[in-house]
Please model this.
Amino acid sequence: MPLPRRLLAAASLLCLPAAALAVPAQAATSTSYTVVAGGLEGPRELSFSGTTAYVATSDDGQVRAWSGGTWTTLQSRLGGTQGVAMVNGDLLAAVGANQPDDSSAKQPPRGLSATVVKATTGGRTVVADPQRFELAHNPDGQTQFGKGGVPLDALSNPYYLIPDAHGYALLADAGANDILRLNSRHAVSLFATLPLITAGACKGAKNNDPKHVGCDPVPTGLTYGPDGALYVSALGGEVEGAVFKLDAMTGALLQTWTGFGEGLTGVAVGPDGTIYASELLHGAPQGDGPPPKGFDPSTVGRIVRVAADGTKTYAAVPMPAGLAWHDGQLWSTAWSVAGLLGVKSAGQLVTVPTSAFVSPAS
Model:
């Protein structure tokens, strides 16, 4: 299932009047994070090149750069921009899939949907078509189409980009549930598929066909650790999430961490090997009804810190998505789905100190 649908379904549980949202002001400080900059529309991936922070903003289809205390718009009118990375001097953006009308069996027009684009002088050009690759190869082997040729899920939903330590770029495809490799000529090949998530609430979960039991491992974040391995965050719906450690050369699975909660949408690794993962929807009200009276949506979301011995501690950050370890500290996007609550320009770029992480009982 494509990531935006999952987020939309879960975020609908939070629908409150805009006045009910208390969005911290720019440069404000809480007990668990500091706001560096605000005014973003649905920030997703966060990446760095030098001292510049790049943020993909999904709600307005832009790529923004934060440098010297100022936002600069580098790309606009892309559609659902979800990933961004500077790769060998090329600014790449992952554009998510357009959502079909649920009342229609037809897929929406493609346009830039489900592509990777590169910024050019005065414009952009499509450099990869992951959906074409998925249709041709179907790496996870799941049934793609149901009766009448209707897609059972998103065929492709490009979500996260990073430079490839052994090539050009890697792409997390949250629709195809795989990680793709782009070479310097932008040819697409398979880097890795991920195992189905079968822990916790995902145990025995039905999928597209009887051969695949468990939650789809929807890849939402990529980063390299100090050990040179590739770490991948994956959500399994609004339930169990996982972090996978892969061999950065071959894509072979090396280790798995489970026990994460709702909406795992980003991963970072500190210089000591500590893992950080963002739970976008932790604490969201359950069920289809309205939230409880007096519910505060700023309590939704947290970042999980996983120590070397597996101990988990938590920092309260509202609706975090993209994560990055940069310049000795953890960075995150925040209020990443506030737009689904009817609140504009609420997205933020924040830093989170290690002292913010506490045990649940604290």
